[in-house]
Design a protein that fits this description.
Region (Disordered): 89-115
Organism: Zophobas morio
Protein name: Regulatory protein zeste
Domain Myb/SANT-like DNA-binding: 20-96
Number of strands: 2
GO cellular component, one term: nucleus
Radius of gyration: 22 Å
Structural class: mainly alpha
Length: 149
């Protein structure tokens, strides 16, 4: 981080500018998804008293960071890793929803959206399809039912 001095209304303000981090490489992303998949019980499962505590969850995230840093050209922090995984989940859900919407379009023909790649399919396999498709047999609370009085 560098310090920049900006002149605003004849006064000098001291501002810190954060340098943008390096992009994750494909090998880093694969290592990230594989490490999280191997530890998903600890990372996302319910905490269970003395057998699984926040201490265990923090150690599991440290192991994920170690796995990514083993293949990374730059050192990644736990905060970077968590943010990247959150962003990956979001983008994967969006892509899966777009693919699903495209298959239901009228007019037939081929699906215009690109299918999920191997890494995205892994992410979907352990975050669950319910987050994309909804709960099977669930009730749509926004659906109109019956007569209005």
């Amino acid at each position: 981080m560098g310090t920049t001095y900006i002149k605003i209304n004849h006064k000098i303000a001291n501002c810190s500018i954060k340098a943008r981090g390096k992009n994750f490489t494909k090998t880093e992303l694969l290592a990230l998804v594989d490490a999280i998949e191997a530890r998903r019980k600890f990372l996302f499962g319910p905490l269970q008293g003395p057998t699984l505590t926040q201490y265990h969850r923090d150690r599991a995230w440290e192991k994920v960071v170690e796995a990514v840093n083993a293949v990374a050209p730059v050192v990644r922090t736990t905060k970077d890793i968590k943010k990247k995984f959150k962003d990956l989940k979001t983008r994967t859900k969006q892509k899966a929803n777009a693919f699903k919407r495209s298959t239901k379009k009228t007019g037939g023909g081929e699906n215009e959206e690109t299918p999920l790649n191997e890494m995205e399919q892994k992410i979907i396999s352990f975050i669950g399809t319910e987050s994309i498709e909804g709960i099977a047999g669930g009730i749509d609370t926004f659906q109109k039912r019956g007569k209005y009085i």
